[in-house]
Write a structure and sequence with these properties.
Beta-Lactamase, five-stranded antiparallel β-sheet, 3 helices, 5 strands, globular
Length: 132
């Protein structure tokens, strides 16, 4: 785990858009690449004990599988993934070489979409690319 994978500007932008979209429901936010990660936000009532590297390995594996499996689907282009758990949700927004996952308490589908679109815009800026 890198202490500072992102610069202050991108880190602050990611946290701000996640907090704006998800409010107090936001539990955590983690920026990751294929080789490293940085937890950029953790709500104060939560412990810093999650095995984030295991989460990231699972998210990259799933992303790689789903990219091929759904590439010519009538559903359209992949946007984001939502995973539901007993105590909240994990939302993964991924580009080819970087991603962010946020964990939340219960929120609406529109909240998920708003957060994912905002985070994806920043990931595109970081990669120097935009979604078509």
């Amino acid at each position: 785990m890198s202490d500072q994978l992102l610069g202050d500007g991108p880190r602050d932008r990611l946290v701000t858009v996640a907090r704006t979209a998800l409010g107090d429901s936001l539990r955590s936010a983690t920026y990751f690449t294929h080789n490293d990660y940085e937890q950029i936000y953790l709500r104060s009532d939560l412990e810093r004990d999650a095995d984030l590297m295991a989460f990231i390995g699972a998210e990259w594996q799933d992303y790689n599988v789903t990219q091929g499996a759904y590439s010519n689907s009538e559903l359209g282009e992949y946007q984001f993934t939502i995973r539901a758990f007993d105590n909240g949700y994990l939302v993964r927004i991924t580009r080819s070489d970087r991603g962010v996952f946020v964990t939340t308490d219960g929120i609406t589908m529109q909240d998920f979409r708003s957060a994912a679109e905002s985070v994806d815009d920043i990931l595109g800026d970081l990669a120097g690319e935009s979604r078509q």
